[in-house]
Every structure is written in C-alpha cells, then in structure tokens.
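pinning this so it doesn't scroll away 📌
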Amino acid sequence: MTIKGLNEEKVKEISNLKHESDWIRDFRLQSFKAFEKLGMPKFGPEINLDFDKVVYYKSDINKINNSWGNIGCAVRDEFNNLGVIESESKMDGIGVQYESEVIYHNMIEELKEKNVIFTSIEDAMDKYPELVKKYFSKIVAVGENKFTALNGAVFSGGSFIYIPKNTHLDRPLQSYFRISSKELGQFERTLIIVDDNSSLHYIEGCTAKEYSESNLHAAVVEIYVGKNSICRYSTIQNWAHNVLNLVTKRALVEENGTMEWIDGNIGSGITMKYPCSILKGDNSKGTCITIGVATDKQIIDSGAKMIHMGKNTKSNIISKSISSRGGNATYRGKVLISESATNSEAMIKCDSLILDKISKSDTYPVNICNNDTSNIEHEATISKISDEVLFYLMNRGIPEEKAIELIILGFVEKFKAELPMEYAVELNQLLKQSL
C-alpha cells in the first residue's frame, strides 16, 4: 500500500489503514490543520521540499513479527547485511522499522516478567490506550513547528517503551529504522516512560538507500524520566545524502532524574536536530554529547537545549563537529536557567575541526540565566589539523592519510567513549568512509 501527497482524506486513509480509535484520528486531523497554517522554519538551512511529491505511507508488511523466519528473504537479507540481526544477541530487546511500519519486535522473557513494555507506538495505542494518552504529545506540542505538525498528521511506526518503577535493565533496548524507497517520508513517533527509581539505555540506528530524489525523515521523540531514574538515548544517524533529517527530541526530567543524549550525525543532506532536556525536578541533570560530520556539501545543523526549572539542576553540553569537502557543521543550542532554578549550573563546550579551505563551521548559542545564584559557562574552539602534529606523526613513519585519520579519531574520543563497544567500532568505520 502506498499513499503519496497530502490532504485531509489521505490523513484519514492512513488512520483507517491502521484501524485507529477516534482519539488518534482526531489528533491526526488536528495536526494536519496546524501543518497547513504553519510556515517553514525561519532559522537554519533553507529547506526546498515539495510536499506533494512525498510518499507518506508505504508498506507491504502489515503485522509485527517476532521471528526473522517470517520476514521475506529480500528484506531479511537487507537487515542481515546491515548487521542488525547479529546485534540482537547483544540487546535485551530490538525493534525494526522498514519503510512506514515496524516489522519486527522481540524482547527477552525476563523483561516481560518485570512488566517492561517494548513495542510499536500503534500496538501500545491499541493495548495500553490510557497509559499512552497520559504522556502522548504532552511535551511536544502539535503546532510547535511545521514538521512536528506533519509528524502528528501522518506518523507511522516508532517505539513505545515503559519501564516500571524500581526496574533496571542489564543491556540496552534497540530500534533500527530503514528507508529503501524513492521519495519516501518516514515519520516514526517514539514515546519512552522511565518510571521512578528505574533506568534504561535505548539505542537507535538509521540508514537509507541513496537516490537522486529526496527522502524525508521527520520524527518526534518524547521521553519522561521519573524521580531518581536515568535514561540514556544513543543515536548514530547514517542516512544517505538525499535524506532531509528534521527531528524533534525532548525529555522531561523529574526530581533527582538524569537524561543523557548521545547523538551522532554522520549522514543526510540536511540535518536539523537539537535534543532537549527540561530539568523540571530539583537536583535533576541533563547531558548531551553530540558529533556532527559534514562532507560533500552536507549541512549538519545540530546541538542541544537545556531548560532548567528545578533548584540545584545541572546540565552539560559537549558538541564536536568535523567539516570537509565543502560541508557545513553548525552548533545551534539554547540553555535557559529560569528564575526558579536557583543554585544551578550549566556548561557548554563546542569544538569544531575544519579539514580544508572550502568547508565551514558556525556556532549559534543562546545562553540565558535569570537568577543570580546560578552559573553558565561556555567555551568554543575552531581549529584545523595542526601542521606540527601532522609532521610529528609522519616523522615516525605514519603515512599522511593514516596520521589525519588518527587525529580525527582522537578528536571524537569523548563521544566514542560513551558508546557500547560495537557502536564505537561502527563509528570508526563510518568516519573513515565519510572523511
């Protein structure tokens, strides 16, 4: 089934295909009305997109499987070649989305016994409607921007996770998103709730085939971190260069809670992504460690937002960017310490590495402190590969190309150190391929 172009009837058609409840269809229609009224973002790179040419829904698989043997050979081989099937043995659970639908989901029995829920957002809406309604679209508003409204109208796939109180997972949960069709838009909606005194590490991976036509990826992620809980959300995005990657990610953190974003952006033609933590509870913490790699005229416009509301809150943003061959890697971020967030601290550190004369890096920070007992520190560096360091390495028998590679890998060491070993190895390979 394929739905191309967008109007109210096609929004209803998507809802009918999924046999949705009235409240979900009404949410879609409300979102579509907001989408029609809103203009394109007035900041960041220019986005040239013909919405009538986008495929908003495509899937030939209409049910979730828990065995790879039930999935067609061509699709199964695609994920096998990507290493997704092999990675499942290292996780407590995995979900896989292909085009517009989640096609595979599995979780170890131990988590089911602990009442952990890990499924697709549609399955959760059907089986746990009251739990979903309590959190769905509460921290990302329908009409926040044109692309959150678009996601609300046509969302399909994405993960739902609920970690009950006093529950800790030994290994991560993982979701993987794949686009394989021309002009397809992927609009997953992810909702994560980590209840009080619990913890979760969630890993997301995404890839797409390369086409001359543009693909669109406009996801929305909402995360709720309970009292004394920890959530870590790790992403390595490696979309093809024809993908427009426009994502909204936000977390609400309660008292003594911790939210950690580990965010890597290697692919896409344009990325606009700024993971946000709202530090609502006293003594809550937010961390965002990002890396953006822009090559071959890519535009990676990324960063983070930290909103301090509770007392004694702390945030830390570390942004690393590399640009080469005409790429533009930009940091865009906001830190706001509100009047109520007394005795709070924020630290922002931005480091950019430019590898040639035709590439660039920009920084657009907004830092606001509204009380006199709190503190914001911001430091930034922009540098090129040092001739002295390069000479030192080459003088010890290391070829120039290998020496540059070592310098780059050292530059991103802080980011790699936060990843599971297999993902750090994958990041090394992606950097070598792209640079």
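📌 and the second one:
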Amino acid sequence: MTDFLTNNYFKTNMRFFVVFLFFTNISFAVAQNHIISLWEDQVPNVKRSSLQEQIKKPTARVISKVVNPTLEVYLPSSIINSGAMVMICPGGGYGSLAYDKEGTDIAKWLNGHGIAAAVLKYRLPEDQSNDIPHLSPLMDAKRGIELLRSKGVHWGIDSNKVGIMGFSAGGHLAATLGTHFEEVNRPDFMILIYPVVTMKNDYTHAGSRNNLLGEDPSKELVDHYSNELQIGANTPTTFILHCEDDVVVPVENSLQLYRALKEKGVKVEMHLYPEGGHGFAMGLQKGRLATWRSLLLEWLKSI
C-alpha cells in the first residue's frame, strides 16, 4: 500500500513538474519587445520647442509631433530565430505615424516567422522642433540601422541580414535610406508597401511632399528626394507591393521605381494587385490581398 501511494505521489508530482516546465519554456519562447532611444545624448538637427508628442486612437496608435525618436524592438524566440531583422517605418504622410497598424502589428507578425523587427518612431519634418525639417527623418533612419547592426549580435542577428520596410510615406523614407546611405547604414534589402517614391508633382502624394519639403521646394530638393532618380548599382535588392486602384499614392510611384531598379541592374520583385486601395497594411479585410504576406516571406527566404 505504501509503495502504491508513493508511486502515485511521484507520478502526480512529475506531471506537475512537466506542466510547469512546459509553461516556463513557453514564457521564454514568447517574443519580447523593448524600446531603445535612437540618440543617447543630444538629438541632432533639433531646436528648443514646446512640442509634445501626441497619441491618437490608443487602441491603434497614431503618433504625431515626435521629439524623442526610438526603436521598439521585437525579437522572436531563439527556437525559430532566422537571424534576419527588419526596421519598419510606419506611414502617415510625414505628418503622423500609423504606429500600430503599419508598425507593431507588422513586427509581431514577422516575429511569428522567426524574423526580428524594430518599429522606427522617427521625427516628422515640422518647423517647430527641427532646424532643417527635411533632414530629420533620414537622420533617424540611418541611426536606426546603425544601432540594429551594432546591437544585433546580442540578439542572434546576422549583420548582413538587416533590412528596411516602409509603408506609404514610410516607404518613401525607406527608399530614401536605400538610395542615400553611407556604407555603415546601407540596408541589406528594402520592402516597400504602397510607397511614395517621387516628389515630382505628376505622381507624388501632395501631403507627403508638402510636409517633407515645404510648399515651394527647389528643383534640386525635389530631385534629391525623388528616389526613382537616385538609384545606383549598389541600391539594395527590393520588394515592392502596390494596388493599381490606389488613388492616394498612384501606382506609378512603384512602376517608376521598378523601371529605375531594372535599368541599374538591381534585383527587384514587384507585385501589383488590381484592387485594394491604399493603407491596407496587413490586408486582413481585403480578401486575397492578404496573400501579399506569403509572397513577402517567400521572397525573404529567397534572398
């Protein structure tokens, strides 16, 4: 009888121990996120102001008036870590950031496929807190890539697998980094989702252009930020996604960029959907448009 009770006690406790280990391991396997400041000391190109960050829609944050740029880092579990990392630039016409819809939601989804991600909360080019407004977004993007490369070794990230992803105006920022980089902050690949590409009046998004360059920019400044004109042979390999019925950012933005990349011999893959409009992000409510995420994952594996 004693042996029977002892064996049952042992089995019961072993089952408890196994369950405890299971849930403990799960907790360690869940993706972690943390926020790091882009600039430890003085933020460059800044001037004193009373500007304060604003957040609208708390359940799906839209952030404006950014004065303290950050990276919100999401890491997959070590079990599925692919060694790749993507810095995500949310859109918002250079007037705000669709921080969750085109940022944290995307980062969490990438984590589920073993890809580390970091959402860039970049400064917006307003006059109140920037010395030269159009310089700040790119400064922050360059700094972001540098930080992710330097810190990535501690997260199991391959320094040759750090790319950039952007939506709408965030796509313009991503493409600007991919065409205006120094070697230390060159992204290894670009993912551009319904991106603003050109600053020329014919196909640009007027709100993004006005917010970034002002209402009457010089031709030199327009050309400088028209990224279809800035492609070089060392521009990183690129994935482009757009919808043909996009009336906010015309599909010609992506078409012009695709042609420029091909002309310079840069590897590029582009997917156009006939319908879907603009700002669809994950595309979960858009039928087969949601399949773009599978196309992206296949592309990432291929490179």
